[in-house]
Design goal:
heterodimer; A: 281 residues; mainly alpha; 3-stranded antiparallel beta sheet; 12 helices; B: Four Helix Bundle (Hemerythrin (Met), subunit A); 2 domains; 0% strand; elongated
């Protein structure tokens, strides 16, 4: 005869099992979304996801905050709903606007299920007490309420809708590129208010002294599928030529970690984009 | 006995002549910009040739072979010192992927070049120690030095 306690234990074990499963999926999502890059300090032996990486922009320098479950320093006090709202609507826990240096205009396209799994993964990280560094922003750009106007012009919240005219592979690729990979944050040129130009999606952009390549077929047609996938797995062409470090890092953290079907989908989707000319120099 | 003033003048004249001779010697040895570009690109190409397999081993794509790593690390150590004198000011307008920042930011450029040389010579040293883990980590560090420099000084191709 089964005791109620045993039954309770059984249900608990099931629940934990499911939670562990979600965290595992979430770990993969965190790689596909490249969270590590901005949310980890740029030094040897830095604690993953404890924040600190500087992102220099024309508006000032942003520092990726601590995402570990530490009560004061990290997201310990956040609920799943808080997290989903931050990703979906670009809001802090207190409701104030987040700066779009945090690429929520891309992450808003993630599905509810993926957001929840990603949250489960972040909850499973060891709490770390490193405080998040405050951003250093230009005088005009400090006011978070101004972001409301920016959002009104440039931000459409909501998950990516599947395109019925395209097959499952292309839809998966679109999701990986647009939502998780947030490739357009670097590879789409921006207007003077820092918003991506929609008609120039992934056409390549200048970032400070460096450039992010045109990812439309204009440039990618130079590579075969095999070559392109190798490049995204190794950050290197077959003759040993090494990609610029900012993309090499993306390869290490993200594209080399994708499953083969996901990498295929990403490449297939990029190939399906309209071929756009490079930005004028 | 010649007076000290005269000696000094003779010495200065000699020094000046020597300087001219050295400079023209340099000028004579100075290859055409197109040649310099080709030569420095050749050094880069060969670095790719010997770095590629090591990176493949570090990424677990091909089996680790300490002998090949030792040999390639030695080649790379030498090659990593070769391209830089090919980036003389005179090659600025010659067609290549080199960016103007090389000449407008000589300190940053010099640091990037130095970094590759020091990471490559470290790799040579650890490749002889036989510690596979350390060797693989150092191959990664060399790759970062390559990519770090390509970031700001080489045009996308």
């Amino acid at each position: 005869m089964r005791s109620p306690a045993a039954a309770g234990f059984f249900i608990l074990a099931l629940a934990f099992g499911a939670a562990a499963q979600d965290a595992k999926r979430g770990e993969y999502l965190s790689k596909a979304a490249g969270c590590l890059g901005c949310h980890t300090e740029e030094k040897k032996d830095a604690v993953p996801y404890a924040g600190g990486r500087a992102l220099k922009t024309p508006f000032g320098t942003f520092y990726g905050p601590n995402l570990t479950p530490h009560k004061e320093a990290g997201l310990g006090a956040w609920s799943e709903a808080d997290f989903v709202r931050a990703m979906r609507e670009g809001r802090r826990r207190d409701g104030a606007n987040l700066f779009p240096a945090f690429p929520y205009p891309s992450f808003t396209k993630m599905s509810d299920a993926d957001l929840k799994d990603l949250w489960a993964y972040l909850r499973s990280l060891p709490a770390n007490a490193t405080p998040s560094k405050p951003h250093e922003l230009g005088f005009l750009y400090r006011w978070r309420f101004l972001i409301t106007i920016w959002k009104w012009f440039f931000f459409t919240p909501g998950p990516l809708a599947a395109d019925a005219a395209k097959d499952a592979v292309l839809n998966r690729g679109a999701y990986l590129v647009q939502a998780l990979g947030h490739c357009g944050e670097c590879h789409t040129p921006r207007n003077f208010l820092g918003a991506p130009k929609k008609d120039r999606f992934l056409a390549g952009a200048k970032i400070g002294e460096a450039t992010a390549s045109n990812l439309t077929p204009t440039r990618l047609k130079k590579y075969g599928d095999g070559e392109l996938k190798e490049l995204l797995k190794t950050a290197m062409t077959e003759d040993g030529d090494v990609l610029a470090e900012s993309m090499s890092e993306v390869v290490r953290n993200t594209t080399s970690q994708l499953t083969p079907p996901d990498l295929d989908a990403m490449v297939a989707y990029l190939r399906s984009l309209p071929a756009l000319p490079d930005e004028s120099k | 006995m010649s007076n000290p003033m005269e000696t000094l003048m003779k010495k200065s004249l000699f020094a000046a002549l020597l300087a001219v001779a050295v400079m023209s010697g340099e000028a004579l040895a100075q290859a055409k910009p197109e040649t310099l570009v080709k030569q420095r690109q050749s050094a880069m190409t060969l670095m790719g040739k010997y770095f590629g397999p090591m990176a493949g081993m570090a990424q677990g794509k091909i089996p680790y072979d300490a002998k090949i790593v030792q040999r390639n690390a030695g080649f790379l150590d030498n090659l990593s010192r070769m391209p830089w004198d090919g980036f003389s000011e005179g090659t600025k307008d010659t067609k290549s992927a080199a960016m103007a920042a090389i000449w407008s930011e000589p300190t940053k450029w010099g640091d990037a070049a130095d970094r590759l040389q020091s990471e490559a010579s470290k790799l040579y040293a650890v490749s002889r120690s036989g510690d596979e883990g350390a060797v693989k980590a150092q191959i990664g560090a060399v790759g970062k030095a390559c990519g770090g420099c390509h970031e700001s000084f080489r045009q996308k191709q």
